[in-house]
Amino acid sequence: MSIKFHDVFYTYLPKSPYEHTALKGVSFEIKDGEFVGIIGHTGSGKSTLVQHINALLLPSSGEIEVDDFLIAPDTKPKGVKNLRKKAGLVFQFPEYQLFEETVFKDIAFGPKNFGVTEQEIRPNVEELMKLLGLDLNYLDKSPFELSGGQKRRVAIAGILAINPSILVLDEPTAGLDPQGAVDTLDLFKKLNKEGKTIVLVTHEMDYVLQYCDKVIVLKDGAIEAFDEPINIFMNRRLLERVGIEAPLVIKIMQQLIDSGMKLNYGKIRDVSSLVEQIIKSRGDCK
Fold first, then answer.
1. pLDDT in tens, 123-139
2. How far apart are CA 240 and CA 237, in angstroms?
3. Of 27, 54, 154, 256, which one has the fewest beta carbons inside 10 Å?
4. pLDDT on residue 154
5. Cα Rg of the chain (Å, integer)
6. Quick one: pLDDT at residue 206?
7. CA 171: distance to chain centroid?
8. In what order do the strands lie in the sheet with 69-71?
9. Which CATH architecture is the domain 3-246 placed in?
C-alpha cells in the first residue's frame, strides 16, 4: 500500500486567536514495503502528519491517497474503518490508546471489532505478548497498573493484533530500556521484510540510520528533505538548518574522511559496518 500526500496543509483551531498551521504544502510518496523515518524538532509537524494517514485528522487543504482510499478536507473517506485496519497507528502516548479493563481486552479490542471470535483471538494475543516481551500473567491485569514501557508494548500489540498493511509508529521506543528498544525495532524490521510498510516517527537518529530506507525531514510544518538516511546525515548544512545532530557513528566517520581516509559511507549504518569499512580501507591502502 503506497501513501501519497498532495500539497497538504493542516491548521489547528482555524479562525480563532489560537490558529496554527502545522502542515504547509506537504507532498511526498512512501512506496509499498518501505521503512520510512520522519524526523524534526518538537513542533515540526511529525505527529500531525502521521495522524492524517488513517484519517484521524483531515487536511485543511490538499489530499492524501492511501492505497485506494482518498482522504480529503471536511469528509472522512468511505470505509474509514477498513482504512484504519490497513493503516494501524501507535500513538506517541500509550495512555491515549489504552482504555479497556484488562490487557487481554485491550489487545483483543481491534480483532473483536472486526468480527474475530474470542476463541480465535486468545492464541494470537498470547503470541503477541510473548513477541513483545510481556509476561502472560499480565493478561488479566489493568493496563494502567503497568509501567510506562509495558503500556507501550501493550499498545503496540493492540495494533499488531489487527495485522495492518501499514504500521505507523509515533515514538514507539520512548519509555523502553535500550535492549527493549532494539528488540522492538528488530521486530518492526522483520515485519517490514515480510511486506509491511513502516512509518517511524522518532528523535533517535541512530535508529533512523540503522533501520530506515528513507527519511522525511520536517521543519515548521514543511518538508526540508526526503532522502536516504546516509545522505541526510552527511549533509551538515541541512542538519544545522533543522537543528538535528547526526548519529555518533556518522560524526566519527566524517572525522575519518576529513583526515583523508577513503570510506564507502553508503555502506555505513552502525558501528560494526563502520569498522568493516575502516578495515577495508586500510587493506586497500596496502
1. 999 999 999 989 999 99
2. 5
3. 27
4. 92
5. 20
6. 94
7. 7
8. 20-30, 3-12, 61-66, 69-71
9. 3-Layer(aba) Sandwich (3.40)
